[in-house]
Structure formats: C-alpha cells, structure tokens
C-alpha cells in the first residue's frame, strides 16, 4: 500500500510527529502532500518562515547564495500576487501559526514587497500572524527590525540572536526592542543572545517574567528592569563581556530596588571581565522570594564578600540553591543559609578547615547536594587538596547527601595490602564525582573497593585521577590528565561498580 493510501486518521498523526522543517520538506517532495501537510497543527510546531514560503513556491534562493532568498516571481503586481495560489494559501496559514523562527533572510526589497501585500489583506497596525505567541530571530548580520510586522499583541515569547557590532546596528537593535514592546506589550519571556548593547531597556516590557540576556549589561539596564518589571520570576544574565556598570547610575540611582516575585537569579561573567555587576545587583536589590542564586564574586575580598552574602541572607531567607563562584570567604558563613538543599562552591580551599564542614553540615539539615570545585583559573590549590577519605566519612555520618563533588587527596591513607574498613555509609548518595582525585596508580583497585563500601547506592560515578610522578614528590599544579591517568580512571570506575555489585550479593 502506498503511504498516501493510508487512512487520514493514521497519516495525520504521523505527520504531527515530524519537526516543522521535515514536515515542509515532505510537502516539497510530493504536491499531493502539500495541502494535508500544511494543515497539520501549526500550533504545535515551530515554523521556519522561509521554508514555509519555499513550500508555497513564493521564494527561492538568491544568486548570491548563502541564506538569502527573494520573491518568485519577482515583484509582480499586487493584484497578480494576491490572486496566486501560493499567496492565498499563505493568507490562510498565517492566522494559524503560533510559533515562528527566522534564520534565513529575505532580501530587503522582498520584505518591503511583502509588507505591501500585507497591507492589502490586513491593517498595517495589526500583525501579519495575529495568533503568533513565539517569535525567534537568529541572524549574524541581519537587521532584525524588518520582521517586526509579523508579531502583535498575542506574542508571549521573543528570542533574538544577533551581533550588533557597529553603532548603526546598535541603534537598530534598540529600535527593534522599542517597537516590539509597543506591538507586543504582553510578552512574558525574552531571550537575547550576543548583544553588544549595554543600555538595553527591558523595563518597557511590564509583563516580563523570564529574562535570558547574553552579552553586555549595565547598572542602568538593571535599574530600569527593576522599575518596570515587577512580575519578574527568573533572570539569567550570562556571557557578560565587560565592566559596563556606569558610575553615575550607581551614584544617583536608587539605593534599594525591589523584585518582589523573583525566584531565580543567575549572573555569569566571561572569564575575568564583568565582575562589578554581581555585587552591585546583590547590594541594591531586595528579592524576598528568591530560591536560586548563582553569582560570581571573584573580585571581592573575604570581608566584603562575607558582608554582601550576609545582606543577601537576611533579605532572601528562602534560598534553597546557592552557587558562589570565586569566593574567598570564611567557609562557615554558608552555614547560615538554613534552608539550603544545594551548595556549589567554586573557590579557594586555602583557609578551609574540618570545623567549617562540620558547621555547614550541622546547620543545613536539608542539604542534598554539595559541590566543591576549582575555578577555571586555578582558584583551588590542587597541589594541596584538603579533603581526605576520613573527611568524606565524616560527611557520610553527619549528612545524607544525594550528590557529592569534591577534590580528594587519597595519598596519605595506606591502601595496601587491604583498604581500611569503614563503618560510615552514604545511604542516599546516588552521584559521586572526585575531581581531582590524587592517588597512587597501584592504589586504584583497593580504593575502588573502599568507595564501594562507603557509597553502596551510587549509580553515577566519575573520578579525574592525578598520580604523583614519584612517591613523596609534591603534586603538580593544575594540568591536563595523562593517558595513564585517564585509563586508570576508566579502570577505577569499572572496579568500583564491580565491587559494589559483589557487596550487594554478599550482603
């Protein structure tokens, strides 16, 4: 039986499983599929704009190649165009589309031509796709304002990936955001990737709930965000490339700002730049509903960072997830975030003491995940890791974690001929990462047996091994693992799970 002879009730569900691009390619293969394919639930698919126009026979790739397309037939009269089958079909489908992505561009003159066609069938003040809820524009060198006419009041999500490298493009970017704010005042989710424009005003989107911003950012932008977006729940500012926090805005701006509904705040910088923004935001913003805080404090000294986090602790008592990158604080300070379930520390271990760990464990009864790792720039002195197997046993006795990631020094413990026995066990631990694990090559097997006793329920295990070149020699500074270490890491993983299975059988 030919696939086109299948009953519609079988064939249509199959088409619904296809991604938009595949669906449209099916329509180009066989003209008999076209009407059926284009009617399959556009509300459930992310439609690729140029692909749709190609299927309808309205555009083709330009002679310049690349991702540019032009209208076919080229700029015929408006009367002839709207009488054509392709345009009539597009005029029907545009009202059904709810999710739209544009990555390939039309030539500017072809967009102008399409605007003229739209004005024949739709008011210039209304969107060409009146039910569009999600619009995604992804370009390298395209001016995105040309596609504003597609979206309107129904839009809820706007995603823009666009490099605005020149002053002219920066102005166009700002204009785009202003027009989108006017056309689509109900937008709840904005994602901007690779923006070089630091003074963007998200405060114009009063209904905004989720913001993902990658690129330059400033204190001025944050002030406007707090003033204009009281419904914000999730803010992710990442890939910050420079310290663009303007001194005038900090000096003359409000000393206290409010984001009353914010639950997630994530601020990530690009290498060694953009470090001023994090402390500025934490110092001036009250976030009483905050649950997740991920922040970079690498530029602060111990006393300043401790004071800043103390302020956060009193203003945001509901925090359950805390990730601090580059801290130099007294480790016991984290014990006062009493509701923490996840604590990730990327910083220096030079001042770490066993008392700090005991204080954290004693004051955080709900802690389920503990990550302690180095900064990419070598913030942890890997040559003298402070964690030993004895300390891990202390954690097992005092705190039943679900996930644990720490650096470990197993060099000082005698593993031969048999590993030491342990009475402690992680009853709930399912994920264990030892990075780095400093250990002698000959101790890998007995250490794996020891871990199997200590962690009987672990199902995810990783270890980044580091062997000393000679017994008694100082461990090397941060470096890539050798081939032997990588190989022994895989061997140890296998030995660990083998020993774990044998313990289960014998038990």
From TrEMBL:
SUPFAM superfamilies: F-box domain, RNI-like. Residues 1-45 form the F-box domain. It holds the Pfam family F-box-like. InterPro entries: F-box-like_dom_sf, F-box_dom, LRR_dom_sf. It comes from the Eukaryota. This is F-box domain-containing protein. It comes from Tulasnella calospora MUT 4182.
